[in-house]
Design brief:
The protein is an alpha+beta fold. It contains 6 helices and 4 strands; from the N terminus they run H-H-E-H-E-H-E-E-H-H. The chain has a single domain, classed as 3-Layer(aba) Sandwich (Glutaredoxin). Strands 2-1-3-4 form a 4-stranded mixed beta sheet, covered by helices on one side.
Amino acid sequence: MNYLKLLLLVMMATAGWSCLAQCGCVEPATEESSASASKDAPAVKAKLPKLLDLGAKKCIPCKMMAPVLEELTKEYTGVMDVEFIDVWQKENAEKAQKYNIQSIPTQIFFDADGKELWRHEGFISKEDIFKKWQELGYDFEKLKNEKAADKK
């Protein structure tokens, strides 16, 4: 691990990140970390598209995301995976680096194979999340209805 990465990891773990304008927590990017972040997709249990939110429980825009993520989790279980990672927790500091997080909250959209499709920094509404998924070729309302019909 190069010196800069080690220094960043120690700073994040001990002092935390200081919030900027929109509680965007900044971590300097390196070409090496940018390249590795795109090829390191999360492990996929069932073959479902995934929305990964990387933030912190004490960050204001992150707190605004919490009810959105909660709704998505409840309404779309079995159709879409939704995961939140608190990158201010010591045990998650390496995940912020793995995903090359520059600001929080950051939402990363993955296809069913774990390939990153798109990412967004800052708060994003439920409506805008679905607009983006539709642009990416996913219709979760249709999938949810099909899943409900299969249960009958």
